[in-house]
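Contributing new records

If you add data, match the layout below exactly. Sequence lines come first and carry their own label; structure lines follow with theirs. Keep one chain per record. Anything else will be rejected by the validation script.
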Amino acid sequence: MGKRVLSTGHNSVALRSRNLLIQQAGYQVTTTKETGLLLELAHKDDFDAVVFCNSIPAHLRASVARELKRLKPTLPLIMVYNDDDERKRLQELADELVNATGASQALIEAIARVTNRPIRRSG
């Protein structure tokens, strides 16, 4: 069975395209736009990483990340960020930070690092 990634974001279009990218890299993806469900899924199921989209306000990403770290301290969190202010705000909570600009390959590489999986190159 492939590595499992829990993916969340508020922008449905970005969420769908990011999830497709993650699936094409060989990961199983579970997704939700609701933070309550995200916490419930992470608590009940085993995931290899959680990806937070930059479409979620930074303060909410930070709050949910703190709760996830409390529930599952070893679960790797990957945060997509918009700018240096967000990066600084989220860096203590994230296992990996990925800039939203040109994030596709960087995101797959971050997932591979936290799940210790070789990167599957496209093309």
